[in-house]
Specification:
Blueprint (H helix, E strand, L loop, with lengths): L1 H10 L12 E2 L8 E3 L4 E6 L9 E4 L5 E7 L2 E6 L13 E3 L2 E3 L6 E3 L15 E7 L2 E9 L19
Parallel strand pairs: 1-4
Antiparallel strand pairs: 2-3, 3-11, 4-5, 5-6, 6-10, 7-8, 8-9, 10-11
Bound molecules: FE2/S2 (inorganic) cluster.
The site of FE2/S2 (inorganic) cluster has 9 residues, from loops.
Length: 161
């Protein structure tokens, strides 16, 4: 009987999993150089990290992270934090110009920052370019929402508003 109870308790212990290693490039702010001081372009890292169908994520000057996408020869930069619950969009699946958050499947158009799941929850976007083999981030192009929370695909809703 005691063994059965112990076994039952073990089955209900929370499973602690190790967090996945971060795919965000560790770029110390001091290592980020201003590529074009007159226009505020900042070098993020090597353009060799850009692969069609996958994001490259970098620490963003000023805080947070930015995910950069290559699509049909053009580069696009969005806030890496999903507007649902801050999931890492740079780790999401990419189909065409759509990135799907790995946490609860909210979807975004990375060319515009539009949220396809909840149109009231867009992402911030930035000017971005490739010059001399380096990805350079420019001015913020559009403002994203600071709101978080909302429906999950399982019908549950977070209480964060
Ligand atoms: S955190 Fe992105 S969908 Fe929930």
């Amino acid at each position: 009987m005691r063994e059965a109870v112990t076994s039952l308790l073990r089955r209900h212990e929370p499973v602690v999993t190790k967090p996945a290693p971060s795919t965000v490039a560790a770029v110390a702010p001091s290592a980020q150089r201003t590529a074009d001081p007159a226009h505020g372009w900042v070098t993020l890292g090597s353009a060799g990290r850009l692969v069609e169908g996958r994001a490259a994520t970098f620490v963003r000057p000023g805080g947070g992270a930015v995910s950069v996408f290559l699509h049909e020869g053009r580069v696009h930069a969005i806030d890496d934090a999903c507007t649902h619950e801050d999931g890492p969009l740079g780790e999401g699946a990419v189909h065409g110009t759509c990135v799907t958050c790995p946490y609860h499947d909210w979807q975004y158009d990375f060319t515009t920052g539009a949220c396809l799941t909840d149109p009231t929850r867009p992402l911030a976007t930035w000017e971005v370019r490739v010059r001399e083999g380096q990805i350079e981030l420019g001015a913020q192009r559009t403002t994203g929402t600071l709101s978080r929370g909302g429906d999950h695909n399982d019908g549950m809703e977070t209480l964060i508003r």
